[in-house]
């Protein structure tokens, strides 16, 4: 039985594009029901572009990333511009050149 009055924190390690990320997911709705806790176990991949502004102003730093469209982008910010223009049809395949 789950603890229905306790905030649950789930540590989930993912292998995403060859890199290991630590995601900490907090579920505040688990304070009130067990079924909400079970629904929170369905994991959605966080967006890579959340930290970049929507103005399209990027630095010229060279840290190449490869998109699922097999194009190499100069850095993640430039990739995020293409991601937004494609309305999410391309994703980050891996870090480095394609």
Automatic annotation (TrEMBL):
Which InterPro entries does the record associate with it? Kazal_dom, Kazal_dom_sf
The source's domain of life comes to Eukaryota
Has the keyword Transmembrane been applied to this entry? yes
Pfam families the record matches: Kazal_1
**Which keywords, in A-to-Z order, does the entry hold?**
Membrane, Transmembrane, Transmembrane helix
Membrane spanning segments where? 7-25
- Could you tell me which residue ranges the Kazal-like domain spans? 43-98
Q: Could you tell me which CDD domains the record lists for this protein? A: KAZAL_FS (cd00104)
Q: Which SMART domains match?
A: KAZAL (SM00280)
Name used for this protein in its record: Gm10267 protein
Source species? Phodopus roborovskii (Roborovski's desert hamster)
